[in-house]
Design a protein that fits this description.
By secondary structure, the chain is α+β, with helices and mostly antiparallel strands. It is built from 15 helices and 50 strands. Strand 3 and strand 4 form a beta hairpin. It is globular.
């Protein structure tokens, strides 16, 4: 920084300190408020572990409203215990100094967050500066490219159509201004709820500080204390809402392309998937199914039997997902219903002079719905009536940053006018600068709520490219227009993990890469990895080579099919994890530190050592090659404990803690060094956490198909041995009134060497598909090879590394003892 700028900052800071020396803190029932030098700070406690900080100028606080935070959470409060400088809750100590600098500590005195200087105003703009410890690690901010840890980097929040983005590209499609600060195993979440073009710097400009700032809008942020990162993620879901329970079919394999046309091509793809026995559930229709790229139309020359095609594919257990971009073709007096009804209801955004804004997108000149008006969102939802009546199962909201052609900014001009007419907000008109980052959020909200209105008892599936914090309440997402490169395969892991930590637990990356053509090996490795990610969608751009699983011959097809099949066998586990996600906000795809925050001696997240490893739910660890194009052996770092090889059942004892990050020190101090894996085309290492009871189903070709055979429970003895199983009809909301099945499982290793498996009484009224249960016990050796069951003594059979038996399905609490 130039000397003159430093001097100016010093003068400004000195003047603030001098003027604030006499500031007095006023106690509130739920917090404190203080004013000094024209700045007012209010800190309130929403819960013992959640604080809200609002700061304003001239004695005024920002509007008490939010697009991201649930009203019930935002207005929640508790009574606090005041003291001379602030207050404390049952979890946190809050202190304001005379310059209005904030310090938040836990009750043991550990500082969780501390202002390094008072807020700095620059007209309507501002910067909040916090102290940064060298041990701080930062995670979140959605799908920003680059490393998992955001420390040492800076980012801008401005939703951008970033076709072919690369590792250094910023910004891209979503603005999720939430991050987790993890230091020595203690976690603090921060949501900076400002929809303008905000900026984050995690020590790039000044190593001892991190900042968040904006050119306008509210200073309104939330602090969420763990102390564990898992608690922070769950609290963020309490604050902004969890991802709803998705339809079961959305967890299956999905095949897509820009574009499958004509109608005969869609049918050909579906028939080939079934003929080659590739389990699959969805086929996507990109923009070419529409007449002249106009949303909510069908090109009847290319798709002469559109509704019949959808019904025929449904008979083959395929769901159709249709793209419905938000740009409505500007077609006055042409009988185009979306334009005519939108104009009649005054539902489109305006130029500064009050005329309707028109910008070029795929249909040519287009108009754009004013989604910050509830009435306009309601109108938008009615546009889905014909498609839902015809049987379209899901909808894809693309181009909703919003993307506009021609302009260098790739979006509409800054001065375009939006009307905010929304319950809980002041009714007013504002510029695109304030609305831009929430435009995709409110687009997907209009779609989701419209589908609920049209089909009240059917779970919607909406896929959105752009969004904001809280958007997970309405839509799944993906990482946008990635590329067919090995580096993009590698980057998909930290992107999806950080999206999950940022609330978006239903997400994926275009398998094989959207831009460009993957080599056969790259496509195979990508299909392997995506089998263990929340959304498994194979998608490709126009003009690229085919991406379908069969395109590279029988050897590649066999490998690709094997991993897709394994995803379907794991469907009982995956759906159970998805149901947990819908209640708690915990993501399907997780960083290791979420389950193992104390996995290292010095408290750093073990993920920083572990390359591209991640958890698929709480129990499965996936360990892809961190440099997937390389053929040399690579290290796998398992968290401390006992693990099992998923493919072979082999037991791996890794109970020694990982030592310092310096490799020489680590290898000297650690008896159990990292595993060394030699990569091969057909293999992806997968490990099961000790104490897991893993539900597995027989293979099906779609999630609509009823499995034929027993439910398998794979038991991996160890500490805290337990598991859960959740089932329902997979499509409706009947689970809300008791039509579900929930079973808790546990196991105990007894002193006599026997293994007891406890199956709790089922909860709920839903009848499951299985008539028998097969038990497979790993990592345990019987003495008499018998089992005590409700039907009497039964022999145990050896199958590979497991000892097995099969019993009739149980409807009451049951204990099995294996000896």
């Amino acid at each position: 920084m130039r000397a003159s700028a430093l001097l100016l900052l010093s003068v400004l800071s000195s003047s603030v300190i001098a003027a604030a020396a006499s500031a007095k803190i006023k106690s509130l029932p739920n917090g404190v408020q203080a004013t000094a030098s024209g700045t007012t700070v209010q800190i309130t406690a929403l819960r013992d572990d959640v604080l809200r900080v609002r700061i304003g100028q001239d004695g005024k606080l920002p509007e008490d409203a939010s697009w991201a935070v649930l009203p019930a959470s935002r207005t929640s409060s508790i009574h606090v215990s005041p003291d001379a400088t602030g207050f404390h809750t049952a979890s946190l100590q809050v202190t304001l100094d005379p310059t209005l600098r904030l310090t938040v500590s836990d009750l043991a005195g550990h500082i969780l967050q501390q202002d390094s200087e008072p807020i700095l105003w620059h007209g309507t703009g501002f910067r909040v500066t916090k102290q940064k410890d060298p041990a701080d690690h930062f995670f979140g901010l959605g799908d920003k490219p680059g490393p998992l840890d955001r420390a040492g980097q800076s980012f801008t929040m401005w939703n951008t159509d970033a076709f072919g983005w690369q590792e250094s590209t910023d910004p891209i499609y979503k603005s999720i201004p939430f991050f987790i600060d993890l230091r020595a195993g203690r976690a603090l979440g921060v949501l900076f709820d400002n929809t303008w073009r905000t900026s984050f710097d995690f020590g790039k400009d000044a190593p001892g500080q991190y900042t968040f700032s904006a050119p306008n809008g509210p200073v309104d942020y939330y602090l969420l204390y763990g102390p564990t990162p898992k608690q922070v993620v769950e609290t963020y879901a309490w604050l902004t809402g969890p991802t709803p329970l998705p339809p079961l079919w959305t967890l299956g394999f999905q095949q897509s392309r820009y574009s499958y046309v004509p109608e005969s091509k869609v049918i050909e793809i579906a028939d080939r998937l079934r003929a080659d026995h590739i389990p699959s559930d969805a086929i996507y229709l990109d923009i070419d199914y529409q007449k002249s790229n106009r949303p909510f139309t069908v090109d009847t020359d290319k798709f002469p039997h559109f509704q019949q095609m959808i019904q025929d594919l449904a008979q083959k257990n395929f769901h159709i997902v249709a793209i419905t971009d938000l740009h409505i073709a500007h077609l006055p007096n042409a009988g185009y219903t979306p334009y005519d009804t939108g104009t009649a209801g005054d539902h489109f955004v305006k130029n500064p002079d009050g005329t309707t804004y028109v910008g070029p997108v795929w249909p040519g000149p287009s108009v754009f719905p004013d989604f910050t008006r509830k009435a306009s969102r309601d109108w938008w939802g009615t546009l889905y009536q014909d498609f839902t009546r015809q049987g379209v199962a899901g909808f894809w909201n693309d181009m909703n940053e919003p993307a506009v052609f021609t302009y260098p900014t790739k979006t509409m001009p800054d001065n375009i006018q939006h009307r905010i007419d929304e319950p809980g907000f002041q009714t007013r008109t504002t510029s695109h600068l304030e609305v831009h980052n929430i435009y995709g959020l409110e687009n997907s909200r209009g779609t989701y709520e419209g589908l609920l209105s049209l089909q009240p008892d059917q779970r919607p599936f909406v896929l959105t490219r752009a969004s904001y914090a809280g958007g997970q309440r309405y839509a799944a997402t993906w990482t946008g227009d990635n590329s067919s490169t090995w580096n993009h395969l590698r980057m998909s892991v930290p992107q999806i993990v950080n999206l999950g930590l940022s609330g978006f637990a239903m997400t994926g990356a275009d398998v094989g890469g959207f831009a460009g053509s993957p080599s056969p090996d790259l496509l195979t490795k990508w299909l392997e990895l995506a089998a263990f990610q929340p959304i498994d969608r194979d998608h490709a751009a126009k003009g690229t080579r085919d991406h379908e699983p069969w395109v590279d011959g029988p050897e590649h097809l066999a490998i690709r099919r094997r991993y897709i099949e394994e995803r379907y066998r794991l469907m009982p586990y995956l759906y159970t994890v998805a149901e947990e996600m819908s209640r708690t906000g915990l993501p399907i795809m997780r960083p290791l530190f979420l389950e193992f925050p104390q996995a290292t001696n010095d408290g750093h997240p073990i993920d920083l050592d572990a390359g591209s490893e991640f958890l698929f739910g709480p129990s499965l660890l996936i360990a892809p090659n961190p440099s997937p194009e390389e053929v040399a052996p690579y290290e796998v770092h398992l968290p401390p404990g006992v693990w099992y090889d998923y493919w072979t059942g082999a037991r791996l004892d890794r109970r020694a803690l990982t030592a310092a990050r310096d490799l020489e020190q680590r290898d000297a101090k650690q008896p159990n060094k990292p595993l060394l894996v030699t990569p091969t085309l057909a293999d992806l290492p997968v490990y099961v956490r000790e104490g897991t009871i893993l539900p597995i189903s027989p293979l099906t070709q779609s999630t609509n198909e009823v499995p034929n055979g027993p439910l398998t429970l794979r038991v991996y003895p160890g500490q805290h041995c337990s598991g859960d199983l959740y089932q329902d009809d997979g499509k409706s909301f009947a689970f809300r009134t008791g039509s579900y099945l929930r079973i808790h499982l546990s196991c105990t290793e007894n002193p006599d060497g026997s293994l007891a498996l406890h199956i709790d009484a089922p909860q709920g009224s839903f009848a499951p598909w299985w008539k028998q249960i097969r038990i497979e016990a790993y990592g345990w050796t019987p003495t008499s090879r018998t089992a005590t069951t409700p039907q009497g003594a039964q022999p145990l059979q050896q199958s590979g590394a497991a000892w097995t038996l099969t019993i009739p399905a149980v409807t009451t609490a049951t204990e099995l003892v294996l000896r």
